[in-house]
Amino acid sequence: MAAAVRAGVDWVQVRDRTLEGEALLEHARAVARAARAAARERGGSVRVIVNRRVDVALACGADGVHLGQDAMRPAEARALLGPEALVGVSCHDAAELAEARGASYAQLAPIFPPLSKPASRPALGLAGLAAARNATELPILAQGGIDPSRAAAAVAAGAAGVAVTGAILMAPDPGAAAAALRRALDSGACSGAPMGGA
Predict the structure, then answer these.
(1) From the centroid of its chain, how far is CA 175?
(2) Angle (CA) 152 184 143, round 5°
(3) For this structure, is 117 an active site residue?
(4) Annotated catalytic residue within 15, 33, 47, 183
(5) Confidence of residue 188 (pLDDT cuts 50, 70, 90)
(6) Domain limits of the chain?
Protein backbone atom coordinates (compact mmCIF):
# COMPACT_ATOMS: atom_id res chain seq x y z
CA MET A 1 0.00 0.00 0.00
CA ALA A 2 2.80 2.44 0.82
CA ALA A 3 4.35 1.98 -2.64
CA ALA A 4 1.00 2.74 -4.25
CA VAL A 5 0.56 5.92 -2.18
CA ARG A 6 4.10 7.04 -3.01
CA ALA A 7 3.18 6.52 -6.69
CA GLY A 8 0.06 8.69 -6.52
CA VAL A 9 -2.85 6.98 -4.74
CA ASP A 10 -4.50 9.82 -2.82
CA TRP A 11 -7.34 7.95 -1.08
CA VAL A 12 -6.97 4.69 0.86
CA GLN A 13 -9.97 2.72 2.04
CA VAL A 14 -9.33 0.42 5.02
CA ARG A 15 -11.42 -2.65 4.35
CA ASP A 16 -10.88 -5.99 6.06
CA ARG A 17 -14.03 -7.84 7.05
CA THR A 18 -12.03 -10.56 8.80
CA LEU A 19 -11.02 -8.18 11.59
CA GLU A 20 -13.16 -6.86 14.43
CA GLY A 21 -12.72 -4.79 17.58
CA GLU A 22 -9.22 -3.91 18.71
CA ALA A 23 -7.59 -5.83 15.83
CA LEU A 24 -9.49 -3.76 13.26
CA LEU A 25 -8.68 -0.52 15.07
CA GLU A 26 -4.96 -1.34 15.23
CA HIS A 27 -4.99 -2.31 11.55
CA ALA A 28 -6.70 0.96 10.62
CA ARG A 29 -4.20 2.95 12.68
CA ALA A 30 -1.26 1.15 11.04
CA VAL A 31 -2.67 1.70 7.54
CA ALA A 32 -3.30 5.38 8.27
CA ARG A 33 0.24 5.88 9.62
CA ALA A 34 1.85 4.11 6.67
CA ALA A 35 -0.31 5.89 4.09
CA ARG A 36 0.34 9.33 5.55
CA ALA A 37 4.09 8.68 5.80
CA ALA A 38 4.17 7.54 2.15
CA ALA A 39 2.21 10.61 1.07
CA ARG A 40 4.68 12.87 2.88
CA GLU A 41 7.55 11.13 1.06
CA ARG A 42 6.04 12.15 -2.28
CA GLY A 43 5.26 15.66 -1.00
CA GLY A 44 1.52 15.17 -1.04
CA SER A 45 -1.36 14.03 1.10
CA VAL A 46 -3.70 11.07 1.33
CA ARG A 47 -7.20 10.64 2.67
CA VAL A 48 -7.88 7.56 4.77
CA ILE A 49 -11.41 6.18 4.75
CA VAL A 50 -12.62 3.27 6.93
CA ASN A 51 -15.09 0.82 5.46
CA ARG A 52 -18.46 0.72 7.31
CA ARG A 53 -17.14 1.35 10.85
CA VAL A 54 -17.80 4.92 12.02
CA ASP A 55 -16.45 4.09 15.47
CA VAL A 56 -13.13 2.90 14.05
CA ALA A 57 -12.93 5.94 11.75
CA LEU A 58 -13.36 8.21 14.77
CA ALA A 59 -10.90 6.29 16.96
CA CYS A 60 -8.09 6.19 14.39
CA GLY A 61 -8.50 9.76 13.15
CA ALA A 62 -9.55 8.76 9.64
CA ASP A 63 -10.83 11.33 7.16
CA GLY A 64 -14.16 9.57 6.86
CA VAL A 65 -16.13 6.39 6.35
CA HIS A 66 -17.39 4.41 3.37
CA LEU A 67 -20.83 2.84 3.75
CA GLY A 68 -22.50 -0.05 1.96
CA GLN A 69 -26.20 -0.22 1.22
CA ASP A 70 -26.71 -2.31 4.39
CA ALA A 71 -24.96 0.19 6.69
CA MET A 72 -26.22 3.29 8.48
CA ARG A 73 -27.50 6.17 6.39
CA PRO A 74 -24.99 8.85 5.31
CA ALA A 75 -26.73 11.57 7.34
CA GLU A 76 -26.37 9.48 10.51
CA ALA A 77 -22.67 8.90 9.84
CA ARG A 78 -22.14 12.61 9.18
CA ALA A 79 -23.84 13.50 12.47
CA LEU A 80 -21.32 11.31 14.28
CA LEU A 81 -18.23 12.23 12.26
CA GLY A 82 -18.83 15.95 11.80
CA PRO A 83 -19.45 18.22 8.83
CA GLU A 84 -15.91 18.01 7.38
CA ALA A 85 -15.73 14.21 7.25
CA LEU A 86 -15.91 12.33 3.99
CA VAL A 87 -18.92 10.04 3.89
CA GLY A 88 -19.02 7.73 0.90
CA VAL A 89 -21.57 5.21 -0.25
CA SER A 90 -21.41 2.17 -2.51
CA CYS A 91 -24.01 2.33 -5.28
CA HIS A 92 -24.87 0.05 -8.17
CA ASP A 93 -27.57 1.99 -10.00
CA ALA A 94 -29.41 5.31 -10.22
CA ALA A 95 -31.96 4.29 -7.57
CA GLU A 96 -29.24 3.75 -4.98
CA LEU A 97 -27.62 7.05 -5.96
CA ALA A 98 -30.93 8.80 -5.29
CA GLU A 99 -30.89 7.39 -1.73
CA ALA A 100 -27.37 8.69 -1.00
CA ARG A 101 -28.49 12.00 0.48
CA GLY A 102 -25.96 13.38 2.94
CA ALA A 103 -23.00 11.60 1.32
CA SER A 104 -19.84 13.32 0.08
CA TYR A 105 -19.37 10.95 -2.84
CA ALA A 106 -20.59 7.67 -4.31
CA GLN A 107 -18.57 4.73 -5.59
CA LEU A 108 -20.49 3.35 -8.56
CA ALA A 109 -19.78 -0.26 -9.48
CA PRO A 110 -19.22 -2.26 -11.47
CA ILE A 111 -18.43 -0.11 -14.47
CA PHE A 112 -16.53 -3.01 -16.07
CA PRO A 113 -16.21 -6.62 -14.85
CA PRO A 114 -14.11 -6.54 -11.65
CA LEU A 115 -10.46 -7.54 -11.75
CA SER A 116 -10.30 -8.69 -8.11
CA LYS A 117 -13.32 -10.98 -7.84
CA PRO A 118 -16.00 -12.69 -9.91
CA ALA A 119 -18.75 -10.38 -11.15
CA SER A 120 -21.90 -10.51 -9.02
CA ARG A 121 -23.95 -8.15 -11.20
CA PRO A 122 -23.83 -6.93 -14.80
CA ALA A 123 -21.31 -4.22 -15.65
CA LEU A 124 -22.87 -0.77 -16.17
CA GLY A 125 -20.39 0.30 -18.83
CA LEU A 126 -19.49 3.85 -19.71
CA ALA A 127 -23.05 4.59 -20.86
CA GLY A 128 -24.38 3.54 -17.44
CA LEU A 129 -21.77 5.71 -15.74
CA ALA A 130 -22.75 8.71 -17.89
CA ALA A 131 -26.44 8.17 -17.14
CA ALA A 132 -25.71 7.96 -13.40
CA ARG A 133 -23.63 11.14 -13.59
CA ASN A 134 -26.64 12.92 -15.08
CA ALA A 135 -28.91 11.62 -12.31
CA THR A 136 -27.00 12.99 -9.30
CA GLU A 137 -25.01 15.97 -8.08
CA LEU A 138 -22.73 13.69 -6.03
CA PRO A 139 -19.18 13.17 -7.26
CA ILE A 140 -18.91 9.60 -8.55
CA LEU A 141 -15.84 7.39 -8.24
CA ALA A 142 -15.93 4.71 -10.95
CA GLN A 143 -15.12 1.23 -9.66
CA GLY A 144 -14.90 -2.20 -11.23
CA GLY A 145 -12.42 -3.29 -13.87
CA ILE A 146 -10.63 0.06 -13.91
CA ASP A 147 -7.11 -0.09 -15.32
CA PRO A 148 -4.98 2.66 -16.89
CA SER A 149 -6.64 2.30 -20.29
CA ARG A 150 -10.12 2.65 -18.77
CA ALA A 151 -9.44 5.31 -16.12
CA ALA A 152 -9.41 8.26 -18.52
CA ALA A 153 -12.50 6.93 -20.30
CA ALA A 154 -14.35 6.71 -16.96
CA VAL A 155 -13.49 10.32 -16.12
CA ALA A 156 -14.52 11.40 -19.63
CA ALA A 157 -17.87 9.68 -19.03
CA GLY A 158 -18.45 11.75 -15.89
CA ALA A 159 -16.56 10.11 -13.03
CA ALA A 160 -14.79 12.47 -10.62
CA GLY A 161 -12.13 9.81 -10.11
CA VAL A 162 -11.63 6.06 -9.81
CA ALA A 163 -11.54 3.46 -7.06
CA VAL A 164 -9.50 0.33 -7.69
CA THR A 165 -8.58 -2.87 -5.93
CA GLY A 166 -7.37 -5.50 -8.36
CA ALA A 167 -5.45 -3.17 -10.68
CA ILE A 168 -3.08 -2.35 -7.82
CA LEU A 169 -3.30 -5.11 -5.22
CA MET A 170 -3.10 -7.95 -7.73
CA ALA A 171 -0.29 -6.36 -9.75
CA PRO A 172 3.24 -7.80 -9.49
CA ASP A 173 4.46 -4.27 -8.73
CA PRO A 174 1.73 -2.25 -6.96
CA GLY A 175 3.79 0.95 -7.12
CA ALA A 176 4.24 0.70 -10.88
CA ALA A 177 0.55 -0.13 -11.33
CA ALA A 178 -0.47 2.89 -9.25
CA ALA A 179 1.94 5.11 -11.18
CA ALA A 180 0.40 3.98 -14.48
CA LEU A 181 -3.09 4.79 -13.19
CA ARG A 182 -1.91 8.16 -11.89
CA ARG A 183 -0.41 9.02 -15.30
CA ALA A 184 -3.68 8.08 -17.00
CA LEU A 185 -5.67 10.26 -14.60
CA ASP A 186 -3.27 13.17 -14.83
CA SER A 187 -3.42 13.32 -18.61
CA GLY A 188 -5.48 16.06 -20.21
CA ALA A 189 -8.98 16.66 -18.87
CA CYS A 190 -8.50 14.11 -16.10
CA SER A 191 -5.80 16.10 -14.31
CA GLY A 192 -6.21 15.98 -10.55
CA ALA A 193 -8.88 13.25 -10.48
CA PRO A 194 -8.72 11.30 -7.21
CA MET A 195 -7.54 7.71 -7.21
CA GLY A 196 -8.49 5.45 -4.34
CA GLY A 197 -7.36 1.96 -3.46
CA ALA A 198 -9.02 -0.50 -1.15
Answers:
(1) 17
(2) 55
(3) yes
(4) 15
(5) low
(6) 2-197
pLDDT of 65-105, one tens digit each? 999 988 899 999 999 999 999 999 999 988 899 888 889 99
Q: What is the mean pLDDT of residues 44-66?
A: 96
Strands 11-14 and 140-143: unpaired
pLDDT number for residue 189: 52
According to DSSP, the residues that pair with 196 across neighbouring strands are: 11, 163
Whether 191 is a known active-site residue: answer no
Please answer whether residues 25 and 57 qualify as being in contact, where contact means their C-beta atoms are separated by less than 8 angstroms.
no
Q: Among residues 36, 90, 133, 150, which one is catalytic?
A: 90
Catalytic residue among 40, 45, 101, 117: 117
How many angstroms separate the CA atoms of 138 and 121, rounded?
A: 22
Domain 2-197 annotated CATH 3.40.449.10: no
